[in-house]
Amino acid sequence: MSKEAGHLPLSASDAKFDRSHKSHPSIQWTRPYFVPIPGVHNRRLRIYLPNLASFNPLRISKLRRKRGPLFISFACLAVFLTVLLVTKSLGRSDWNSDWPDSTEDGPTLVFHRKHLQQIWKWEIESGHYPSRASVPLEIGLTETLVNPALPHKPPALKPSRYLSPDSDNIVVDTHGVGPKRVYLDLQSHPPNVAYPPRPVPGSVADMDEIMKHCDFSANKYVRDCLEVLRIGGGLDNGQRYRREDMDDWKYIYLEQPLNATERAAIHDPPRKPSQPSMRRITKQGGKKGAVVDPDEGLTKKIGSEWEEQLVLSPTLDYRPTATLEKPCDPENPKVFHMFWTGPFTDKPYLALMSFLYTQNTGLHLKEWPSDSKVCRPQFWLWINPGPAANAHNPTADMFEQLKQSPWAAPFLHPRFKGIIQFKRWNTTEQLDGIPEIKHEWRALQESLFNSGGHIISVKKKEPATTANVTSTAADGSTTATGSSEEDDEILNRTGSKSASSYDRLSVILSDMARFVLCHRFGGVYLDADTIFLRDWEELWGWKGAFAYRWSRLPNYNTAVLRMHRNSALGSFLFRTALKNGLDFHPMTVTRYTQDAHLQGLLLRLPDALFDSAWLNTEEYQRDRPPQPYFTKFQDFFDTPDQTSGSPQALGFRGFFRGAYSYHFHNFWWKPFDPARNFPDLGPRFAKTEQIAHENLRKAKAAALAGAAGATTSSGDSSANDEPEFATTPGNDKRDLDWSTVMKRTFEAYIRGETPNMYGEWLDWVE
């Protein structure tokens, strides 16, 4: 059947359906169209739209008599568009509900191509690119770079289809000269199959293999990805049901240094003579004086000048773990960072508890052995003691406040010394510690809170008045955020106490803080709404930088961020952000790397590794969801009745087994364990528990007093957002929620009632 202009193609069966309609002239006003359904690959949605071929002059006179079918077709179109809008609205995560979508405001690039080549060269030769993925053609490399983190394999030269023939070949592969890789078969062996084995010290995760099994862009399911992560990591202990060969699922390896003979066998990479890598641009209509534009194909940020230089530290020496004198690599500190504002609550408490339950901290040993081959991880919790709007917060005794906090005090116990450290955040001190921006960031101080081009300006008025808070959109329009009283309340928020009192400034500050901490100190940053689910040993072994995917969108989510100290990538990001208003929103960071063709240097890992429920909450992959099945993030706290038997029956082991962590996307005001909303750690911490009970009693009394004074006609919708209180135990639900089961699992480990996830019992050495 012929296709008319603008019509969607029909399948054979659909064509038959269409012909049956053509046999009835009375209904030729409409025609069926078939469009794909997002997330459902084997079905299409049939909609009826006006048949434009039927609108000819002879039939116009009959419009009034045939008004019914035409009206129906337009009604169907309206319903279809409404469904699309509602689906988009419902598909948004709670995390993103208050934030602007990524806007294409124009290019962000401020670096020449020679600088981008310099960045790639620095990162590759420092061992931060242990991947066989190609260097983008747009970078225009004309010589092969030596890659010490990649095993030897003859590189390939590919001609660029984007460049003219006079640029010759562009090099897109690196020359591996690194150690051999020995892939591991990790599993528990009888009779010790109750717990999984700890990862091998110094092991490395092959991200190329993980991407092959987990990339959403390649239509890989989270459920299948988690199975590969589970089996390849030995987390299917005692439950390995598959019997076929699964060598293809091995993604963890050890580096085996080359001997002298093997090193001698590696030839030098083929070096190409320096030559123009971009097309020749002939000025003045092809007359003499043709010049080469080295930046052709790159689009500079409008209104900005090119950066004239890029100052980088010396290239690092790549050293496999097996060649280190000590287990910890000073160039790659094994430090987790987390940022927190306001009073310490159950959210950072559970993050720390999950860290102790999963990571190889050696708490099962009486003392850390001097000859240990394990690099002991550390957790640095950065606390901003005051509102985010204050660049200089008061210097009150932070540790005295922590001692009085029942949620924080347990981690001050001497047993956790050297493992968990509390550090004070000072915005001025931290930004001054970034050499790329320390002399210029103050010029942007009044517009420091920039998220996706949406600026919340914090300008100080005269002492007699309150601060002026305005919101500036990307187009430059400015609006006040509310009344003076509301503005002052926004400025002075220290944490999110409910959905209606969200501490947006602290969230924006944390977007920047994660890059500051990783660039200054190295390590991995995690959002405070994160729970560890397994040992991260092999992730530390992979020396590249990474974040993860923003659900279905090809953007970054930096709720997990790994970067190296004083890296070339970090220098690029801070200089670029400075020229773009110090905007570190994840979607803006995506634009920075896209415009500069540097996305390969900040790998966008699948969200299955750190955020396994996200796609399901946005109505993707619901035909084959992972375990557990969450349709919204709140299901973690309020598990639906239909699946409420799973948490207690399956426990920690049945919670996204294989993933490295879980991101529950805010809900700061929602307690993990409403019936026991206090640190339930046993007699050793009885005093702090008593403080928690007293605080709960005071909070409940204040809440009841506030409720009594509120009028029913106020229409305050935030009442349901208030925290839940329980001053005494004994109020358990019949079916415990996932959040409650997770909290009580970690606390049972601290009380000495159960080992950690690897079967190790905590030794208090008392």
TrEMBL record:
Keyword terms: Membrane, Transmembrane, Transmembrane helix
InterPro entries hit by this protein: Nucleotide-diphossugar_trans, WD_repeat_DCAF13/WDSOF1
Transmembrane segments: 68-87
PANTHER family assigned to the protein according to its UniProt record, in alphabetical order: GLYCOSYLTRANSFERASE FAMILY 32 PROTEIN, U3 SMALL NUCLEOLAR RNA U3 SNORNA ASSOCIATED PROTEIN
Species assigned in the record: Candolleomyces eurysporus
GO cellular component assignments: small-subunit processome
Compositionally biased spans, kind Low complexity: 470-483
Segments of this protein annotated with the region Disordered: 266-295, 466-495, 710-733
GO biological process: maturation of SSU-rRNA from tricistronic rRNA transcript (SSU-rRNA, 5.8S rRNA, LSU-rRNA)
Protein name per UniProt: Glycosyltransferase family 32 protein
Keyword Transmembrane among record annotations: yes
Domain of life: Eukaryota
